[in-house]
Amino acid sequence: MPTAQILLYLVLVLVNVAFAIAWVVQARRRTAVARPSVADVLIGVGTNFLDTLGIGNYAQMTALFKLRGYPVDELIPGTMNVGNAIPAFFGTLIFAAAIRVEPVLLTCMVVSAGCGAWVGAGLVSRMKRRTIQILMGTALVVAACFFTMTNIGVLPPGGTAMGLEGWRFAVAVTANFVLGALMCAGIGNYAPSMALLALLGMHPVAAYPIMIGSDGVLIPVASLGFLKSGRFDARVALGLTIGGLVGTALAFPLVEALASHLPLMRWLVIGVILYAAATMLRSAWRPTEE
């Protein structure tokens, strides 16, 4: 196994072990045992199934929580982060082992995203969220148009590489730093990662271990803060964790099956990107507080 891949696994394991220990310690301080409901588990299954396919899950989780009126709004961010940490770690392990992305690129992009989130916590989170959503939503629509023209034969096909070199490597790592920072402003990284890597000439399936690996570091780090403050619903988070592991395992074979069918994979990417663009632009025009 390459040194870069060993380093990546080491970082992932250390971060997630620290998270697991902190959760156990926090749980022991509670007087009642948190027992998730069937609805909590099903939400975890469905949203993580979509997340593993690259569609994302935070927006869907938030919508479902709001629909049923539980947990309360101030506990939703912490509940989602704590509940998705272990499924994200599980997804990282299976994707990194099954999809052979160039290990140095994978490691550098995951570390870059983590550094971006660290910096973005104090910088990007102060930017106007609506401006970021409009810019990224528009950029994703343009990217989807390029992919559509490629699939219908207007543009020459490309995007079969599983690694990058030279300026493309530098652009990918730098852009993932920015995407990691933007996650602090509530902007997901899945669709932008897919668009970026495909435009740089990589196979669409190569985006999966990169974007899930980034979450494998980002989410547990963010969750440590929520565990310390106690601003999360332990019962719901446990249900999301159980359901998330099941949903990830169910969706993974579909990604592997699509990997050998590049045009079909591109259509999936187009759908994911358009969904993300529509969500961002709709949120940008919605009259909410910054």
Give a brief description.
By secondary structure, the chain is mainly α.
The count of helical stretches stands at: 11
Judged by helices, strands and strand pairing, the structural class is mainly alpha
- Number of E-state strands: 0
Largest sheet: none
Secondary-structure element series: HHHHHHHHHHH
**Which descriptor suits the 3D outline?**
globular
Oligomer: single chain
**Low-confidence region ranges:** none
In round numbers, the mean pLDDT is 80
Span from first to last CA?
Answer: 46 Å
Number of domains: 1
Helix content: over 70%
Which strand-content bin applies to the residues?
Answer: under 5%
Properties at a glance:
290 residues, mainly alpha, 0% strand
